[in-house]
Each structure stands twice: as C-alpha cells, then as structure tokens.
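ok so i was messing around last nite and threw this chain in just to see what happens. nothing serious, just curious
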Amino acid sequence: MPNWTSNTLNVVGKPEAVDKFVAHMGEVMDFEKVIPPPENMFRDNVSSEDKERLAADGIPNWYDWQSANWGTKWNASSDEGTVEIETYESMNIKQATYRFETAWDTPREVITALWDKWPDLDFEGGYSVDEAGLKANIGAALDAGVVGFNFEDQVVGVEGLHEVSEQASRVAAVRSAIDASGVDAYLNARTDLFLKSKPQDHDAAMLGEAIDRAKAYEDAGASGFFAPALLDEAMIGKLCEATQLPVNIIAIPGCPPKAKLAEFGVARISYGPVAYRQVMAALGEGAKAAFA
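result:
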C-alpha cells in the first residue's frame, strides 16, 4: 500500500510484499550503492535520561536500538540523486519509508518507474473547483502514468458536499479530459455522505441521496461508485442493487466481512489508511515498552 506525502513514499503491508517492493524499487531506480548511517545517528536527538537507559542496556545510541528492534536505516544513491530509506517490522506488518532528498522533486519519475502495472491516484477533490483546473490536473496525472482515480464530492477545506448537479458536471469534466487523452482510465466517483456523518445517523434518506448521486455520476461518465464509511449491511446491499456502477466499500472497523460484501454485490474493497495506522500504533507501543 504505497502512499505519497511531500517527498516521502511510505509502503505498508505484509513483510514479504514489502520486501518484494523494496527489491523492485532498487532495480528500477538503479541504486548503485548503499551508504550505512553514521555511528552517532540520532544521538543528538535523544534525551540524557534515555541515553543513560540505553547505555545501561549496552546500546550506544537510538539507531542501534531501532535496528535491533524493528529494522534498518540507510542511504542509497543513483544517477538521479540520493534517498534515505527506513524499514520497520512489527506484528507481521512491515513499513518501508523512502525520503527523496535531492532529485525527484515530484513523485512523477518514481511513479512511472515503480510499477509493472500502472497505479491509481487518490485525486481527492481534483485540487480545483473550476472545470478548467480539473482538466489540467487530471491531464498532468495521466501524463505521469496514472490510470485510475478516486474523485470525491466533498468540498475540500470546508464543510459540506458539492450539489449533485454540480458534482456531476465536475465528473463529466474529468471524464472529458480522460477521453481526450486516449488513456483507458478508471474514474471511481466517491461520495462522502456517510464519511461526513455518524453511523447512527445513516438512514433511508441518506441512502436515497447516495443512490441519486451514483446515478448522476454514472450518467456523467464515472466508472465506479465509492461510498466510504457505509457500514450497514442492508444499506450496502440496496446501494449495490440500485446502481449499475461497481460499488467500492472501505474495510474500516465495523465493516461487514469480505464474504458478506461479495454476497451483497460489492465489487471493490479498499483499506485506506488502516494498515498504516496499525503499524504506527504497533511501533509506538514497542517504543513505549522499550523505554518503560
């Protein structure tokens, strides 16, 4: 599960899958050499109390403790620049973090190099309200090699959702840009109706609006319909029955099991930030235990 944040790429998943990704990353980015960290890595960032605790355990610095418990940290270089790489493993979940420090000022070069199959992109609200901006942004992503998009209907940065007709026009603008590019890209139209409300407030009226949105987005050119935070089994089933679009549900706590979702007609299951949050929580608990 890769995730970009600024110049950082996080990959979280089962250890064998992450190891395969790391090996592939090394090949496609042509890392020529690995530079081990200096002996005093992180030493200046550790409090005097923690230094005493580490020394009492025979560990000279935080890096050595970190390596002994979870993973490694090193630098690598290629013709394109340098990258700092960390790997951690805990509770059968592994994370690899890449911090690109010189070249690769955008993820474009890495995106196009990383994948045997082209990636999809969380396009959020399109990073623009007007249709011209949407088309420009989707075009840049398509040029980078992206062939799948999540496109949400919330008004990013404020409360509320775009009106159905307004969002349908936005979906149509994105579809127009995709079609003009000649790329057979998948456009997953997402509604945040359920995400923006508490599960106990999910009712028939809200489901009815979601179905209206699904139909409008389908007519505008969407390839699929994503309803994150919809957890009620009956409502999921009714949504799948009411739309011709493949339905996408996110497996957050409280979500029905995969077999049930398949039975209801769900076509795609997402996991969002769940695995990332799990591994971060595990790392945090491990650190607390080590310094207790």
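not much to say yet. Residues 164-181 form the longest helix (18 residues).
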